[in-house]
Amino acid sequence: MNRDALIAELATLLGQLPEAASQGFAAAREPLCCEVLLAASGDPELLAMLGDPGLEVDFGSVRARCEFWRSVFDLGLARLVVTTVPWIYRSQQARGFSASCFQRLLRLWMRAVEQVLPARQARPILEVFAWIHGRHDEWLRLAQDTGTGAATPEGAWAPTQRQFLVHLLNGDRPGCLLLAEAMVKTQDDLRQFFVQVLTPALYEVGRLWETGRISVGDEQRASGIASLTMDTLFHLLVPFRGMKGRVLITCSTNECHELGGRMVADLLAGDGWSTAFLGANVDPRELLSLVRHIQPHVLGISIALPLHLKEIRELIAAVRLEPGFRRSRVVIGGNAARNDPDLWRALGADGQAPDALAAIALLEAWWLDMAPLGT
Predict the structure, then answer these.
(1) Is residue 72 in some structural domain?
(2) pLDDT tens string 276-326
(3) Contacts of 329 (CB under 8 A, 6+ apart)
């Protein structure tokens, strides 16, 4: 069965899930997690996998997986399941865990649901889990796709990207900085460097971590060097700020991946927007306070991992109630958004951008409508 057929089948199943079942699962998250952890203690490999430091950063913990399932049930996210499950298979196997780990853990979730939820709530949840459990061969096949997720640069920037990636993987901070300073002299150079060099290099770093070829420490070191490189180039953006409206960019709840959001904020600043980037893991109450103060024309939310999508939908709904925001717009981006082109609809946003250039183009189109509102 191909990917589209899997999505269609699961979408039908999720569309039949009663609201009471998804609400029951959400309300019982803590006892469900406790049941799964208790049961996993009898399976040494599962216990090791759930405590693996490389996986824990992104998707390893029971609570992280619980939030994922909660979002799937609440929002009916069939496409996100079909893209995320092979990723879990791939990253777990790359760290030496058997291909059956996902199936065994899913059976523990099914048992926990049976034990914790009333039968009328448990039954439809179990039907979804059973469907996913029965597609083991399809998940294994889809897990073989290890594409970078970003276009490989061509032409003049290709050698720069390859050289920058080598420096990045070697932890060569001076090499990265010197290469960036040599290649970036103008505003257009900066945009091309971010899109043609930095973005594909970071996606490749993520792919190498995902396939077990580098450690989480290597990935974090590369992110730190990329962030420093962006700092070094930021001075090129200063003369271009403030000609358009205000943009507030943040990361999703409990999100630690912030480079993508920051890159978009920097490029929008260079495109004439007055931007504020809040970084990772911002408290929703603080974000609402800043929305009241700044009254942005656009709120951008970067979503790398699909773990707290229900909270993001609630946040967007709360932002729309702010008097100074009601004629403004919300855009989402990040890896989770790239994996599901319709995610913005499920979250109640106004659009989404798969990459920085798409974000610039989308906001430019929006600004033509919003400019009469004033700045």
Answers:
(1) yes
(2) 999 888 888 999 999 999 999 999 999 988 878 988 999 999 999 999 898
(3) 297, 298, 299, 350, 351, 366, 370
